[in-house]
Write a structure and sequence with these properties.
Double Stranded RNA Binding Domain, about 30% strand, alpha+beta, about 260 residues, 6 helices, 3-stranded antiparallel sheet, 14 strands
C-alpha cells in the first residue's frame, strides 16, 4: 500500500481507500477514494501544502484531488497552529469560514468555538447549521428572528451580507409583527398580524408596546380557533407586571377579527 493510504471496506462490502497525513503529531484523515492512486495523490498534495506557503486562494478545483475544505483546514493549521474540523482561516480579530473557493463568511473570533465544530450549509440565501438535530439559521445568533426580512428587520451596515461580524449587523425590528415606520414625521412602531392577508393592529410609541399588541392579537385569534400557531414575542425588557398592564389595556381592533371571519367563510 502506498504511503498515506490504507484500505477500508464500506458497509455494503465495497473496498475503498482512505488518505491521511500526520502533521505536528496530529493524525489527520483527508478523504476516501475509489482508487489507491487517488488516495495517494491526495496525501501527496497535503504533504506539499503543509511544507509550502500556498494560501487558500491557490486551490484549483480542476487540478486538486484533495477536497477544498481539507485544503482550508490544513492551511489554517499550518499558518495558525489551530486544527479545526471545519474550513475556517483565522486572522487577528476575525476568521473566514469558506463555503466554496469563491465564497466565505466573516465572523468575529468570539464565534470560533461554535463554528469550529459546526458545518454551515447553504440553501438559496439561507445559511444554517445542524444543531442537536435541528436546522438553526445562523442569523438567529444575532437576535434576528426566522422569516425576518433584510432591509426591513435588519441590515448589513457595509452592504455585505456575508460579513457576519456583530459590528456590521444592525437589528431594526426584533419582534414578530412589528415594523418601525414614520408617520407624520414621527417615529412609530406598527403592529400587524397575518390573518387573511396582513391586518393592522395599530401604531405604538415603542416597539415593546407594539410587540405586546401583536401577542394579544395572536392569543385571541388562536383562542378563536384560527388553526395556526403564531410565534409570540418574548420581551425581556419588560417586567411581568408592566407586561400584564400593557396587555390588559391594549385594545385589538375589530378589523382583525373581521379578517378572521372572512377567512372562514
Amino acid at each position: 500500500m502506498k504511503r498515506g493510504v490504507y484500505r477500508a471496506v464500506r458497509k455494503n462490502g465495497e473496498v475503498y481507500y482512505k488518505a491521511s497525513v500526520t502533521y505536528r503529531e496530529k493524525h489527520i484523515s483527508l478523504a476516501g477514494y475509489d482508487t489507491e492512486a487517488d488516495a495517494h495523490r491526495a496525501y501527496t498534495e497535503a504533504r506539499e501544502l503543509l511544507s509550502s506557503r500556498s494560501p487558500v486562494s491557490d486551490y484549483d478545483i480542476e487540478k486538486r484531488t484533495l477536497p477544498f475544505d481539507k485544503w482550508v483546514i490544513l492551511v489554517n493549521f499550518r499558518d495558525n497552529g489551530i486544527y479545526s474540523a471545519t474550513p475556517v482561516y483565522l486572522s487577528k480579530t476575525y476568521f473566514l469560514y469558506y463555503l466554496s473557493p469563491s465564497e466565505y463568511l466573516i465572523f468575529d473570533n468570539e464565534e470560533l468555538f461554535y463554528y469550529s465544530s459546526r458545518r454551515i450549509m447553504k440553501r438559496g440565501n439561507r445559511l444554517f447549521v445542524a444543531d442537536y438535530g435541528a436546522q438553526v439559521g445562523i442569523l438567529t445568533r444575532y437576535g434576528i428572528r426566522p422569516h425576518a426580512v433584510e432591509g426591513r428587520d435588519y441590515r448589513f451596515k457595509n452592504g455585505n451580507r456575508y460579513d457576519l461580524r456583530a459590528s456590521n449587523i444592525e437589528l431594526i425590528n426584533e419582534y414578530f409583527g412589528v415594523q418601525a415606520v414614520t408617520k407624520d414625521g414621527v417615529q412609530l412602531y406598527e403592529a400587524s398580524i397575518h390573518v387573511n392577508g396582513y391586518s393592522r393592529i395599530g401604531f405604538y410609541k415603542t416597539p415593546e408596546e407594539a410587540a405586546v399588541a401583536y401577542n394579544k392579537a395572536a392569543d385571541m385569534l388562536m383562542k378563536k380557533g384560527i388553526g395556526r400557531k403564531y410565534s409570540l414575542n418574548y420581551i425581556d425588557s419588560l417586567k411581568a407586571s408592566v407586561y400584564a398592564k400593557l396587555y390588559s389595556e391594549t385594545e385589538i381592533p375589530d378589523s382583525v377579527f373581521t379578517a378572521f371571519k372572512n377567512m372562514r367563510e
